[in-house]
């Protein structure tokens, strides 16, 4: 199963494409990871919570655990799902509450990415 991701913004597109390319290579070399990819797609499906809410949750978690590629991925996905800067800021605040000072530094990155994505939308 190929990881499919198509960014509609111009900021960090190359970084996202490189992440997807490397993930596809990894999954091709370790096909057992396909089960995890299937699980991710299932967890991200919209049964009760909408996509925007799930992406904002994922962004907050990415900030709290300090996963820079995840921050890029989920900021882009949240904007594509219709998140406004105010909503992203709410997610950032929750992330910093949970992750403390280190999360604050990653929150700054998410904030800057979100501003750039939203101005190019």
Automatic annotation (TrEMBL):
One of its GO terms (molecular function) is peroxiredoxin activity. Gene3D superfamilies: AhpD-like. Residues 31-110 form the Carboxymuconolactone decarboxylase-like domain. InterPro entries: AhpD-like (IPR029032), AhpD_core (IPR004675), CMD-like (IPR003779). This is Carboxymuconolactone decarboxylase. It comes from Zestosphaera tikiterensis.
């Amino acid at each position: 199963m190929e990881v499919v991701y198509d960014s509609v913004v111009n900021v960090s597109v190359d970084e996202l494409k490189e992440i997807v390319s490397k993930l596809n290579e990894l999954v091709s070399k370790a096909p057992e990871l396909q089960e995890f990819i299937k699980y991710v797609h299932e967890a991200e499906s919209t049964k009760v919570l909408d996509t925007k809410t799930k992406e904002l949750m994922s962004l907050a978690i990415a900030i709290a655990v300090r996963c820079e590629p995840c921050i890029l991925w989920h900021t882009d996905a949240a904007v594509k799902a219709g998140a406004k800067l105010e909503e992203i800021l709410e997610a950032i605040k929750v992330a910093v509450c949970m992750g403390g000072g280190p999360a604050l530094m990653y929150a700054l990155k998410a904030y800057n990415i979100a501003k750039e994505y939203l101005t190019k939308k």
